[in-house]
Amino acid sequence: MTVRHRDGIHFEFEADGEAAVVADARNAVGEVNVVSHAHADHTFRSTPGTVVCSAETAAIAAARTGTEFEYVDRAPGIDLVPAGHVVGSRAALIEDEAGRRYCYTGDVSIRDRCYLDGFDPSAIEADVLVIETTYGRPKYRFPPQADLESEIVDWIRDNDDRPLFLFGYSLGRAQKLQWIAREATERSGDREILASESIRDVTRAIESATDLSFDGQPYDSLRGLTDEIVILPSNQARSEWVERTVDREDGLKAGFSGWAVDDSFRYRGNYDATFPLTDHCDFDELVSVVCEIDPEVVYTHHGSDEAFADALATEYGYRARPLKRDQRTLGEFC
């Protein structure tokens, strides 16, 4: 089997070059199509063939796109294991006809966070690892999760006399912000947590597929706020209506992302505070995933793919190369 980066990651049989398994494509074209999780850049517009994903991912994707699809949570030669990225996220273990094992992580995090358990690389046996490298540079090192969540709780409690506007992805970060905000407000008990309708749509899908529950309530208006905590999608942080509302209500804005380790992130979102709360591995955690699995070959993709592959090759002795579009084999990178 060879690996190709096209629309998604293609795992192809050597003999015919056809896509036996396609992971996270926008247009599902494989005999088997794996969806690692329900973020928009990992789901598809068409669904031929067999779709392999978790029940949670199927429910969330249907809620976000309005299209339901049939799925299975395993297929011949394919097993799914929790990836620790968002609710329902899975890594795929693929075995070819020769018994060679491939691990495709999708997006991944080994951290236990709020209600979510992290990915466990020690349980994975694979000859080839295909790993996302969003934060694959040494400057991306995040504080311990418990310390980070405590810092966020303290910031919310320290600003209990004015509205707070918290920004994170609608799937993943927004639910964790509701979880952390609930912890921060348990002492007072009367500080309201509000969430946008788009976030509530995703949250309801998660609640319907799991035993989780979240505190974000709907709002008709954001006028006359006092100490409410408002959770909004990160892509609205610089929208005119948000800026007007924050100014009018004398609020504070906080952004949550791994990119917060860069000072520029604060200015891009015009935030008053930023925190590196993320659903991805940092650099050291990515290295630990590779070392725990200890594959013969590592393909990197997305983010810092070239930098991370170079670090693996030069500092850790792995055969590692970035998986560029349309290149098929490791030899073609040499």
Structure report:
- With 334 residues, the protein is an alpha/beta fold.
- It folds into 2 domains: 2-139 and 280-333, Metallo-beta-lactamase, Chain A, CATH 3.60.15.10; 145-275, Rossmann fold, CATH 3.40.50.
- Helices cover 26% and strands 22% of the residues.
- It is built from 8 helices and 16 strands.
- It has helices spanning 55-65, 145-158, 173-185, 197-209, 240-248, 264-268, 283-293, 305-316, and strands at residues 2-6, 8-12, 19-23, 32-34, 50-52, 78-82, 90-95, 101-104, 128-133, 164-168, 193-195, 229-233, 252-256, 273-275, 297-303, 319-322.
- Strands 6-7-8-9-15-16 form a 6-stranded mixed sheet, with helices on one face.
- Strand 7 and strand 8 form a beta hairpin.
Derived from helix and strand composition plus strand pairing, the structural class reads alpha/beta
- Based on the structure given, which CATH architecture of the largest domain is correct? 4-Layer Sandwich
Strand content: 15-25%
What is the alpha-carbon Rg in Å?
21 Å
How many individual helices?
A: 8
Q: Helix content range of the residues, please?
A: 25-40%
Largest sheet: 6 strands, mixed
CATH class assignment of the largest domain: Alpha Beta
Low-pLDDT runs: 326-334
Order of helices and strands: EEEEEHEEEEHEHEHEHEHEHEHE
What is the H level of CATH, i.e. the homologous superfamily of the largest domain? Ribonuclease Z/Hydroxyacylglutathione hydrolase-like
Give the overall pLDDT as a whole number. Answer: 91
Q: Categorize the overall geometry.
A: globular
Extended strand count: 16
Enter the CATH topology name of the largest domain: Metallo-beta-lactamase, Chain A
Side-by-side strand order of the widest sheet: 6-7-8-9-15-16
Terminal CA distance reads 19 Å
Number of domains: 2
